[in-house]
Automatic annotation (TrEMBL):
A Pfam family that the UniProt record links to this protein: RHS_repeat
Highest taxon of source: Bacteria
Name recorded for this polypeptide: Sugar-binding protein
NCBIfam families according to UniProt: YD_repeat_2x
Organism: Oligella urethralis DNF00040
Amino acid sequence: MFARSFDWVEHSFALNRLEALDGVSSEENNTNTPEKPNPPIRTRFQRDILGRLLGKYSIKQQPGQRPLIQRDRYQYDAAGQLITARNAHARVVLHHDRMGNLVEEQLYQRGRGLSQLRHTYDELGNRLRTHLPDGRQLDTLRYGSGHVFAMELDGETLCDIERDSLHREISRSQGALRSRYQWNAMGRLLSSRTEQQQPLVGEPTSQGQQIARSYQYDAAGQLMAINDNSKGLTRYGYDELGRLLSAAHPFAVNEVFAFDPAHNLISQQQAEHNQQKRKTDNRWSEEECQAYVKANAHRPDFDPWLTPEQVQNDPLFWGEARPNRLTTWQDHRYQYDDFGNCIEKISGSAGNQTKKNLEWDTEHRLSRVWIERKKNGNTTREGWGYDYDPFDRRLAKYPLDATENKQKSRQSRPWKSPQTTYYGWDGHQLISEQQQNKHQLYIYEPDSFVPLALVTSEIDAKNQPANALSEALKDYPPEWQQLQHQHQHPEHWAQVLEQQKKYRQKAGVTELKAKAKTPENQQIHYYHVDHLGTPQLFLLFLIHFNERD
């Protein structure tokens, strides 16, 4: 099978006898010339007799360089549930209970080792408790069919929630503050008000002891105005298609938006120019219309009801000369590869300029960034690399030596740098970031991506469950130490897991004995969000100094 996307990228699909996808080839057809070769990305899928995906192999040829190769492999249990997924960067092991709930997720990551998430559920499948990789415990307290009334971190209350008879949230406590909410009959937020309910611990990040916002909607449910006690009244305007045209702010520059026929955002000056041009264009005579139809009637895509200007503005007729990608915006300039990935971004003027070159893997994930900054005659360069798990979640960001070539940087194992930032995930929620002993924990409203709190702390990496076993095995024979996860490539982990388990049992060391110590200097930052769940500001932060012996 064959398909072509709106930006002229061609996709070829191959199906097996069971009509399951067996392979994909993606390439751009409009610029394949000897001067600019565009090798395709070829992806092959391996399946079992039940049609389940066992492997995915992608390759992209690079002129003058080694080809990019990506290989993902998957395993399933007898019930057909995914239990293992691995690639060159990580291995993810999933454990489920008899009801199919995910009860444990183990991540073996290069440069970091093992991290685990464990979950507990009620009879209805609602999550009640999560044991985090750093040893902390997050509890979600529910009633009835799963409505949340409180959340706790290590037994400390993060928030208490009150609900009305329709189980809509009408009140929430966040540290020293309490927020109250009102809703209309359609379930839209009408107002939110936050007030101090007890003496503050620490200092508020904003002045004043009250935050109030109210919302107004039209009959179609479009937001017409937001009245904020600190920002004033903001009004919004829309066109007949529901696109935002204006935002009038009392204490800031008013915003005006315009769109081209493909709904791309353009400048107001360009929109006014296009409108004026349409007004000044002369109408065709009947003879001109007949001549135009006669000259184009043989074309299969010809529409006699459209003028040449309308055809020019219609994205369906742009073809290979108009890929519909943003190339210039203010002082930013962009270049793209044949698959639509931005490969170069230049910002600023010649004397004060930042240039970024971006590299993408076979799955179109950002793999490397090379940054060059020029300011006052000085030039600085830096590079960053990124790791991903088989579910396309970013696991690590590490520095690269911008003075070395790409092959040398790859051989030096840059992901072991102390400047590496590690990311933790719960499903598709980013729940943690860690660089050395600096740790950030993100907590969300249950079953959503709306942020609730940010917990920052200092953690001794050696005392975390992921590394405690490695510390315990330091005094044992060298052959035991060789089996530690952070020193093994992901491709070798499957071979050593069983042997390492035997050594741990012989040494009397298990994961259950590797307890994490309480984080130091823990700070809890609470988010205040708008009707869409977008953070507006930090309400408050609490500081806890944990004493140590």
